[in-house]
C-alpha cells in the first residue's frame, strides 16, 4: 500500500508486528491515535517503554514483579510447601482469580516446543529444581503442574516429572476438566478452580 | 484483575484504550513485547510518538502528508478538474489501490453524526467550498462524493450537495455497488473501482 506519509508507514509497520494485528487494523489504530489528544499517544508510548525497560522478575518464582520478590512470594500467609508450575503471568492471574489456591507459583516463561526452537534450557526449569532441593527446613511437599493440555504442555509436563522424580516431591497435575486443545487463560473460573481442587497425583 | 506489577497494569490500561482491544488482548500484547527484544518496543514506542507529534496535513486536500502538499496534490499528472470527497486517509488508500481514479481528493476528516456530536463545522467542508470557488483558471468541474452508504454518509452527502449547489459544479456519487451498511475501506478493489467508473450524476 502507498501510505501518504513515512511516519504513518513506520507506525503501521511497528503496530502490525504485534501478534494478531494486520496492516489494516494497524492503520485503523494509527488513525485513531491521530484523531485523539496527543496526550493519549504520549501515555501509551511511555507506558510501553517503561514496562519493557523497567519490568523486573521475582528472583524466586520468576513472575513479573515490582520488587525483588513478587507480591505472592513475599506474602507470609501463602503456603510455601506447595508450588504451582505455570507458563506465564497470565496463568498466574487466571489461577489467582479462582481464589482456590494459596500456595506459591513457578513461572516457566514458556513451554517446550521443538517446532519453535524452545528447549528445556530456555525455561526456568533448573531454578525450579534448585527451589525444591534447597527448600531446607521449610520443604516443598508438592508440585502442581498447571500446563495447558496440548502437545507442548504434555511434553513439558513429562519432562518436569522426569526431572523432579529424584527429589521425591509429590507431583500432581490440574484435573483435565479443561477441554483438550483449549487455552488455560480462557477457561472460566469455576472450571479452573475445580481443576485445582481435584488435581490428580501422578502414580 | 490483580496485575503483578504497576508497570504492566499501566501498559494494559493504555493499550486497552485502543478501539477493539480489551484487557485480555492488551495483556497478551504486553507480555508479547516483554518476551521480544527491547528494540522492538523502543521502535514501536518511538514510531507512535513521532507519528502523533510530527504528522502534518496537506494544506489543499487535508490528507496526511509529509510535506505542505501531499503526494497526490503535488503530482502534476493528476487531473485537477475533479475532486473526490472522502472521510479519511483509509478511503484515499482504498480508492488509489483501484487505479481507476486520476483526480484529486478532499479529506473531510470525519462524517456528520449528531449522535457523536460531529457537525459540519468540525469537518473540512468550508475549505472544500473555498477550493471549488477559488479554482480560477483551472476550474473544478466535478465533485465525486465517495462516502459510505450509511445514515451518516447519506446525511453528509445531502449536506454537501446543498452547500455545493450554488457553485454550479457537477456533483456525482460513487455507484451503490457497495452493500448498504458496509464500510468503504473493506470493499474489494473491483467493486470499488467499478463504483468510481460508473458514478451516478445527481440530477
> Oligomer, anyone?
homodimer
Helix content of chain A: 25-40%
CATH topology of the largest domain in chain A: Dna Topoisomerase Vi A Subunit, Chain: A, domain 2
Topology, number of strands of chain A: 7
Overview of this structure, please?
Two copies of one chain form a homodimer. With 203 residues, chain A is of the alpha/beta class. In chain A, 39% of the residues lie in helices and 13% in strands. Chain A contains seven helices and seven strands, in the order αααβββαβαβαβαβ. Chain A has helices spanning 6-15, 23-35, 38-54, 89-96, 126-133, 151-165, 189-197, and strands at 56-57, 64-65, 79-86, 103-107, 142-145, 170-173, 200-201. Chain A has a five-stranded mixed sheet. A two-stranded antiparallel ribbon of chain A has the order 1-2. In chain A, helix 1 (6-15) crosses helix 2. The radius of gyration of chain A is 20 Å and the shape is elongated.
